[in-house]
Specification:
- The complex is a heterodimer.
- Chain A is mostly helical.
- Chain A has a domain of about 220 residues.
- Chain A is built from 20 helices and 2 strands.
- A two-stranded antiparallel sheet of chain A has the order 1-2.
- The longest helix of chain A has about 30 residues.
- The termini of chain A are far apart.
- By secondary structure, chain B is mostly helical.
- Chain B has one domain.
- Helices cover about 75% and strands about 0% of the residues of chain B.
- Chain B has a two-stranded antiparallel sheet.
- In chain B, a hairpin with a 4-residue loop joins strand 1 and strand 2.
- The chains are: A mainly alpha, B mainly alpha.
- At the A-B interface, helix 5, helix 6 and helix 7 of A face helix 18, helix 19 and helix 23 of B.
Amino acid sequence: MNLSILLWLPLAAVVAGLILPATEARFAALLGSAAALVLSIVLLFRFDTGKPGLQFVTNKVWISELGIHYKLGVDGLNLFLILLAAILFFAAIAWTALRDWERPRLFYLWFGLAESGVLGALMAQDLALFVIFFDLMLVPFYFLGGGWGDTPNRVAAMVKLFIYTLVGSLLMLSAAVATGVLAQGPGQPITFDLVQLASNARRLPVGSQEWIFLFFAAAFLVKMPAFPVHGWMPDGYKAMPLPVLAVFSGVLSKVAAYGFLRIALPLFPDAAVHFQELILFIALASILYGSVLAFTTRDTRLILGYSSVAQLGFITLGIFSLQDTGAQGALLQAFNHGLVVAPAFFIVALLAARAGGSEDLRDMGGIAFRAPILAVLFLIVAFANLAMPGSSNFVGEFLILLGVFNSKIVISFVAFTGVVLASVYTLRLFIRAMHNRVGPHVESREISLTHGLIVAPLVALIVGIALYPQLALHRSQRSVQASIREAKALTQPAREAQR
Amino acid sequence: MMIAAAKGPHIDWAGISPLIALLGGATIVLLVGLLRPRVVREVLVPLLALAAFGAAIGCGIWQYGEEKNLISDALRLDGLTTVLSFVFCTGGAAAVLLSWRAVAPREAAHGEFYALLLTSTGGMWVLVAAQNLVTLFLGLELLSIPLYVLCATEMRRATSLEAGLKYLIIGSVGSATFLYGLAFLYGATGSTDFTVIARAVDNVSTDTLLLTGVALSVAGLAFKASVAPFHQWTPDVYEGAPTPITAFMAVATKAAAFGAFLRLFDVALLDTSADWAPALAVLATITIIVGNVGALGQSSLKRLMAWSSVAQAGYMLAGVVVATQLGVKATVFYLAVYLMMNLAAFAVILIRERETGLGDDISSVQGLGVQRPLLAASMTLAMLGLAGIPATAGFIGKFYLIDAAIDGNYAWLGVVIVIGSMVSLGYYLRVVAAMWMQDAPTPGAALAATGRPAMAGGSAEAEAVVTRVQPETWAVALIFGAATLFFGIVPSPLFNLAVHAGESLSGLF
């Protein structure tokens, strides 16, 4: 199967949509993302679990002078994230297609470009190509948020978001170039191919490895966002239209987590071990800070936003446990969180529509009796978000904590409180929104069929993956182990010595 | 003996054919401009100027791949000369198109205007081809003096005159400093010839005389390339000069100045690079910071582009600092890319100046995304390209420069470049936001707010131009906007040119 088709189809569809009448532009976008979804499901079934390394590789020289290859490939690390992106983009585009937007052709053009950008970042197997897509996928969100956003200060908010996240990305650009140049053997041409870089990375002096790693970490942590660098998040989240936010929060943060596994750990194992505790502390701080703020804020979007900060903290924690179990749990959790947060944002949109347009918790409440189906859907999402035993999120968090427990026992104890806090803020959101007194302007209505048709399958997926998490775990196992092998090997002797 | 001395040097006519095209074109344009009929002056003269630029590029293509010294080693035709001449001839041709309906050529007389433009470009050719301190200075002056006049061609607008005067005074100081520096270089090495200097530099590398010469000539070239702290004239002159001339100055002068930088430092003074490279690296850093910070608060688009051009000069200086072939290639590549992005941006600014009567204020592009999506797309590509966003040629250019910087053991300079890019987003995005996310101002309110209607021409004549269609300006905007996107995805043709230019400096690694 040719990955290029999957990659460019969403963009090609919306570009073709430019010649359609403005009212029909949505169908082009819908068609493109639906086709991408079908292709990514085909990809899932044709993926050979037994084979190590990359599959469906496309490898062409793009810019020979700079050693940049157009190299795409799929393995256990990105297989499910590609699927996640395709699912969420299709759901979000379907959701946006239910209403009219100003300048629809442009709106869907950005949406399609965003999907291609995200898919490109996930599939890229060349460091430079990854950096290009990683930066590129942000551009459409700037336009989507700034042009069609919800708040009056949306332009300022999106500029802040863009600059904040691009600060990380540009540092990553210089770090990526440095990796390519410094890992270049004498007399060899420069290359950014990740496989070759991983075998050459030993050439990097430890000192260079450290600053390069920190630059990469900065890019990924900002995009997640993690605690001290989340400043763009509140304004940015408030400014973006909800369906856009659903994919932004559901997919883009996962690309950052994926970046650690794909790039930072295999290429810079020494630095990863050196900074393991620093990143673990950042992750821990994100969990606690995110949880506490999710518990105190009244804006439903921000509750989900801060909850994402905490969840991404867990994912980072799992990756930097540098244990097979932890990293595997992190990857599973990345998929889970994407599946949970997108329907959660859709439900927030529905709740706001029923509370007179307000997204404030104080204006909501008491819908559950009149709208039992909506309440059930929301409840399942909420349970998944708080990692109820039986949900796939539980499995993910369990594996993460097990990994951390094995490597840094003290940190795992503190992280356990994050699990408790998650149930506190999630249940608070559910109870205040669905039960309690009926809010002042609340108009209880059941979820409409069209909206239900978008949210229900996502919820069904949450249930499905809860019943059978091995689907993801099994396919990703080998790749995750390969990704952290080097770094893990470096931590082993240290612990042997401690014993 | 006497007979031999009286004989002139051998002249390779084919080699200097691009220069002949430019200067011969200038003569013809000047003479034809004297003719009476309006159609001759307003149509034939610019067409002839375009043809001269086309002929210069054509001769360059004809001589492509040649490497030879011309006129007893005073000039050198090689990859660097040819490729850079493509850059500034394209800039000149675009300036002709942008001037087609402008006020400036009508006020200054068409023949003179276009002849000055061609002469200035001829000066650039001499400057980048120079193999000798004397021709280097000759080229610099031939480039500068017509530009002083061109800046002041909108004679009825005070700011244009001011710009011309300011540029004249500051430019002359720059030239004088440069000349003084060249004198020191001659004193230290005993020759004006680059190859002789390069050999002599080896023995005298710590000589105070030489170092003073290097420092003064850096300052002189820095004036032309608007490298901080010699950049102060840039915002005022860019703002005051007629917009087509600003565009020409931004792209062509920059290319020529960097050509001279590369020739002087990467050929003649190569062996003493340990002395000047750290100093130039510091200059580049200062330039990047000053340019980007200066641009942040600007509301005039031309001033914004001026500060941005200062910052971009800093990026390109990184390619000179490392003194490697990779550095030369990266600089030349970036100059070509920079040409596209700037021409697209200036064409849009010019169109809006003529359409809105808001001058070059940022409010003139507000709501452009709704009114003129294609123009807004061009401008967006230019802005994102200048900021170094992927999928534009600007990103590849910046990638190349960072690559060169790190490869030349200036990793920190690569980091400075990306930090500069981050700051630059603060103003490039403001322009993008104005186009796509803000509504067009109502005419009355806009005039009241800016308080200076019709910055573009300032005369009733200019107002009359407003409503007329301007296909040639649109063409410049759209072609170079599209090129910014195209070469961001398919950069190989530009790489071929850059590699050709880089490899012609064979003394480098």
